[in-house]
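[recover] target loaded
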Protein backbone atom coordinates (compact mmCIF):
# COMPACT_ATOMS: atom_id res chain seq x y z
CA UNK A 1 0.00 0.00 0.00
CA UNK A 2 1.38 3.42 -0.97
CA UNK A 3 1.43 5.95 1.85
CA UNK A 4 -0.51 9.17 1.23
CA UNK A 5 1.06 12.62 1.33
CA UNK A 6 0.65 14.64 4.49
CA UNK A 7 -2.13 17.09 3.49
CA UNK A 8 -0.17 20.33 3.32
CA UNK A 9 -3.29 22.27 2.33
CA UNK A 10 -4.55 21.73 5.91
CA UNK A 11 -1.78 23.67 7.66
CA UNK A 12 0.11 26.96 7.42
CA UNK A 13 2.30 26.87 10.53
CA UNK A 14 4.44 24.08 12.01
CA UNK A 15 6.24 24.01 15.37
CA UNK A 16 9.03 21.44 15.69
CA UNK A 17 9.84 20.46 19.29
CA UNK A 18 13.10 18.58 19.84
CA UNK A 19 15.61 18.05 22.62
CA UNK A 20 18.89 19.10 21.00
CA UNK A 21 20.60 21.11 18.28
CA UNK A 22 20.91 18.74 15.25
CA UNK A 23 17.85 16.59 16.13
CA UNK A 24 15.88 18.09 13.23
CA UNK A 25 18.69 17.63 10.75
CA UNK A 26 18.79 13.84 10.49
CA UNK A 27 16.38 13.80 7.55
CA UNK A 28 13.31 15.69 8.80
CA UNK A 29 14.71 19.09 7.86
CA UNK A 30 14.30 18.14 4.20
CA UNK A 31 10.53 18.21 4.76
CA UNK A 32 10.94 21.58 6.48
CA UNK A 33 12.78 22.89 3.42
CA UNK A 34 9.84 21.85 1.23
CA UNK A 35 7.34 23.50 3.55
CA UNK A 36 9.12 26.84 3.85
CA UNK A 37 9.58 26.97 0.07
CA UNK A 38 5.79 26.65 -0.22
CA UNK A 39 5.14 29.49 2.20
CA UNK A 40 4.45 27.40 5.30
CA UNK A 41 5.96 29.01 8.41
CA UNK A 42 8.08 26.68 10.51
CA UNK A 43 9.44 27.34 13.99
CA UNK A 44 11.90 25.28 16.02
CA UNK A 45 11.77 24.86 19.80
CA UNK A 46 14.94 23.30 21.22
CA UNK A 47 14.59 22.22 24.82
CA UNK A 48 18.34 22.17 25.56
CA UNK A 49 21.46 23.83 24.15
CA UNK A 50 23.17 20.47 23.61
CA UNK A 51 25.98 21.29 26.02
CA UNK A 52 26.65 17.65 26.93
CA UNK A 53 27.16 16.53 23.35
CA UNK A 54 30.86 17.34 22.86
CA UNK A 55 34.08 17.01 24.91
CA UNK A 56 34.48 20.83 25.08
CA UNK A 57 33.47 22.67 28.27
CA UNK A 58 29.67 22.81 28.43
CA UNK A 59 29.25 26.59 28.01
CA UNK A 60 31.59 26.61 25.01
CA UNK A 61 29.74 23.66 23.52
CA UNK A 62 26.36 25.33 24.08
CA UNK A 63 27.42 28.51 22.27
CA UNK A 64 28.89 26.51 19.39
CA UNK A 65 25.92 24.22 18.96
CA UNK A 66 23.34 27.00 19.09
CA UNK A 67 25.32 28.91 16.46
CA UNK A 68 25.42 25.82 14.25
CA UNK A 69 21.68 25.36 14.74
CA UNK A 70 21.07 28.94 13.63
CA UNK A 71 23.07 28.22 10.48
CA UNK A 72 21.13 25.00 9.89
CA UNK A 73 17.83 26.88 10.27
CA UNK A 74 18.91 29.43 7.67
CA UNK A 75 19.61 26.66 5.16
CA UNK A 76 16.00 25.40 5.28
CA UNK A 77 14.24 28.74 5.70
CA UNK A 78 13.41 28.60 9.41
CA UNK A 79 13.34 32.09 10.90
CA UNK A 80 11.78 31.35 14.30
CA UNK A 81 14.20 29.54 16.65
CA UNK A 82 13.66 29.33 20.41
CA UNK A 83 16.29 27.59 22.56
CA UNK A 84 15.53 26.76 26.18
CA UNK A 85 18.07 25.88 28.85
CA UNK A 86 16.86 22.61 30.28
CA UNK A 87 19.89 20.44 31.10
CA UNK A 88 21.22 18.35 28.23
CA UNK A 89 21.52 14.62 28.85
CA UNK A 90 19.25 14.63 31.90
CA UNK A 91 16.11 16.22 30.43
CA UNK A 92 13.21 15.37 32.72
CA UNK A 93 9.63 14.78 31.68
CA UNK A 94 7.39 16.77 34.00
CA UNK A 95 5.29 19.86 34.51
CA UNK A 96 8.15 22.31 33.95
CA UNK A 97 8.87 20.85 30.54
CA UNK A 98 5.19 20.65 29.59
CA UNK A 99 4.69 24.24 30.72
CA UNK A 100 7.53 25.56 28.54
CA UNK A 101 6.35 23.68 25.46
CA UNK A 102 2.76 24.74 26.08
CA UNK A 103 3.89 28.37 26.27
CA UNK A 104 5.57 28.16 22.88
CA UNK A 105 2.53 26.47 21.32
CA UNK A 106 0.29 29.24 22.60
CA UNK A 107 2.76 31.86 21.40
CA UNK A 108 3.46 30.43 17.93
CA UNK A 109 -0.06 29.04 17.31
CA UNK A 110 0.90 26.15 15.02
CA UNK A 111 -1.47 23.97 13.04
CA UNK A 112 1.07 21.13 13.34
CA UNK A 113 3.35 20.15 16.20
CA UNK A 114 6.19 17.93 15.03
CA UNK A 115 7.74 16.13 17.97
CA UNK A 116 10.19 13.36 18.75
CA UNK A 117 9.21 9.74 19.04
CA UNK A 118 8.54 8.56 22.58
CA UNK A 119 9.18 4.84 22.11
CA UNK A 120 11.93 3.20 24.15
CA UNK A 121 13.03 0.88 21.34
CA UNK A 122 13.52 1.98 17.74
CA UNK A 123 14.86 0.24 14.62
CA UNK A 124 18.20 1.88 15.48
CA UNK A 125 18.28 0.58 19.07
CA UNK A 126 17.22 2.14 22.37
CA UNK A 127 16.29 5.77 21.92
CA UNK A 128 18.15 8.41 23.89
CA UNK A 129 16.42 9.45 27.13
CA UNK A 130 16.17 13.16 26.24
CA UNK A 131 14.39 12.29 22.99
CA UNK A 132 11.77 10.22 24.81
CA UNK A 133 11.18 12.91 27.45
CA UNK A 134 10.86 15.58 24.76
CA UNK A 135 8.45 13.50 22.70
CA UNK A 136 6.14 12.65 25.58
CA UNK A 137 6.17 16.21 26.95
CA UNK A 138 5.32 17.62 23.51
CA UNK A 139 2.46 15.15 23.17
CA UNK A 140 0.98 16.26 26.48
CA UNK A 141 1.70 19.96 25.91
CA UNK A 142 -0.41 19.85 22.75
CA UNK A 143 -3.42 18.98 24.87
CA UNK A 144 -2.38 21.40 27.63
CA UNK A 145 -2.21 24.31 25.18
CA UNK A 146 -5.87 24.07 24.29
CA UNK A 147 -7.13 23.97 27.88
CA UNK A 148 -7.55 27.40 29.41
CA UNK A 149 -7.31 25.94 32.94
CA UNK A 150 -3.96 24.20 32.42
CA UNK A 151 -1.09 26.62 33.12
CA UNK A 152 -3.68 29.43 33.49
CA UNK A 153 -0.99 31.96 34.43
CA UNK A 154 0.07 31.98 30.78
CA UNK A 155 -3.42 33.25 29.93
CA UNK A 156 -4.04 35.50 32.92
CA UNK A 157 -0.57 36.99 33.40
CA UNK A 158 1.30 36.53 30.10
CA UNK A 159 -1.54 37.42 27.77
CA UNK A 160 -1.43 34.17 25.79
CA UNK A 161 -4.57 32.51 24.49
CA UNK A 162 -5.38 28.78 24.52
CA UNK A 163 -4.58 27.19 21.18
CA UNK A 164 -5.79 23.91 19.68
CA UNK A 165 -3.38 22.09 17.35
CA UNK A 166 -4.77 20.23 14.32
CA UNK A 167 -1.95 17.72 13.72
CA UNK A 168 0.60 15.92 15.89
CA UNK A 169 3.30 14.24 13.82
CA UNK A 170 6.43 12.30 14.69
CA UNK A 171 9.08 10.93 12.32
CA UNK A 172 8.38 7.45 10.99
CA UNK A 173 10.12 4.74 9.01
CA UNK A 174 8.95 2.27 6.36
CA UNK A 175 7.26 -0.66 8.05
CA UNK A 176 7.33 1.02 11.47
CA UNK A 177 3.93 2.63 11.72
CA UNK A 178 4.36 5.56 9.34
CA UNK A 179 1.01 6.82 8.07
CA UNK A 180 1.95 9.71 5.74
CA UNK A 181 4.91 11.07 3.82
CA UNK A 182 6.36 14.27 2.40
CA UNK A 183 8.15 14.09 -0.93
CA UNK A 184 11.56 15.77 -0.73
CA UNK A 185 13.03 14.86 -4.12
CA UNK A 186 15.48 17.43 -5.47
CA UNK A 187 16.05 20.78 -3.78
CA UNK A 188 14.40 19.97 -0.42
CA UNK A 189 16.66 16.95 0.00
CA UNK A 190 19.74 18.93 -1.01
CA UNK A 191 18.93 21.57 1.58
CA UNK A 192 18.20 18.92 4.18
CA UNK A 193 21.66 17.42 3.69
CA UNK A 194 23.23 20.88 3.85
CA UNK A 195 21.42 21.63 7.11
CA UNK A 196 23.13 18.70 8.84
CA UNK A 197 26.44 19.72 7.27
CA UNK A 198 25.99 23.05 9.09
CA UNK A 199 26.69 21.16 12.34
CA UNK A 200 30.30 20.72 11.22
CA UNK A 201 32.06 21.04 14.58
CA UNK A 202 29.58 18.74 16.29
CA UNK A 203 29.90 16.07 13.60
CA UNK A 204 33.69 16.35 13.67
CA UNK A 205 33.61 15.50 17.38
CA UNK A 206 31.73 12.24 16.73
CA UNK A 207 34.08 9.36 15.90
CA UNK A 208 33.41 7.66 12.56
CA UNK A 209 30.25 9.66 11.85
CA UNK A 210 29.34 9.27 8.16
CA UNK A 211 29.10 12.31 5.92
CA UNK A 212 25.50 13.57 5.69
CA UNK A 213 25.49 13.20 1.90
CA UNK A 214 26.43 9.53 2.31
CA UNK A 215 23.43 8.43 4.37
CA UNK A 216 20.56 10.92 4.36
CA UNK A 217 19.71 10.39 0.66
CA UNK A 218 19.78 6.63 1.19
CA UNK A 219 17.22 6.76 3.99
CA UNK A 220 15.13 9.24 1.99
CA UNK A 221 15.17 6.82 -0.94
CA UNK A 222 13.93 3.97 1.26
CA UNK A 223 11.13 6.21 2.52
CA UNK A 224 10.39 7.32 -1.03
CA UNK A 225 9.55 3.75 -2.01
CA UNK A 226 6.75 3.78 0.58
CA UNK A 227 5.21 6.80 -1.20
CA UNK A 228 6.04 5.79 -4.76
CA UNK A 229 8.45 8.72 -5.22
CA UNK A 230 12.22 9.08 -5.43
CA UNK A 231 12.85 10.60 -1.98
CA UNK A 232 10.56 11.21 1.00
CA UNK A 233 10.36 11.79 4.73
CA UNK A 234 7.79 9.68 6.56
CA UNK A 235 5.69 10.51 9.61
CA UNK A 236 3.19 9.03 12.00
CA UNK A 237 0.48 11.68 11.77
CA UNK A 238 -2.48 12.13 14.10
CA UNK A 239 -5.37 14.39 13.08
CA UNK A 240 -6.47 15.60 16.50
CA UNK A 241 -9.67 17.12 15.13
CA UNK A 242 -10.87 13.88 13.54
CA UNK A 243 -13.07 11.50 15.54
CA UNK A 244 -11.24 8.41 16.84
CA UNK A 245 -11.36 5.50 14.44
CA UNK A 246 -13.12 3.30 16.99
CA UNK A 247 -16.02 5.79 17.10
CA UNK A 248 -16.19 5.96 13.31
CA UNK A 249 -16.21 2.18 13.00
CA UNK A 250 -18.87 1.83 15.69
CA UNK A 251 -21.15 4.29 13.90
CA UNK A 252 -20.80 2.32 10.68
CA UNK A 253 -21.80 -0.99 12.25
Amino acid sequence: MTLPALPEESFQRVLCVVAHPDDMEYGVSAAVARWTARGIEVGYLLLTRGEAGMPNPPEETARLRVAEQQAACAVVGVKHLTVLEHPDGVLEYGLDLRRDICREIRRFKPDVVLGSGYDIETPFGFDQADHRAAGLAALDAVRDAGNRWVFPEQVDEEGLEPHSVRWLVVPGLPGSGATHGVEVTGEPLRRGVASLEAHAAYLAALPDHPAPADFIPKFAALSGKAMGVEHAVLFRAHDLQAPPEVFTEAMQD
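[recover] notes: The CA atoms of residues 60 and 104 lie 26 Å apart.
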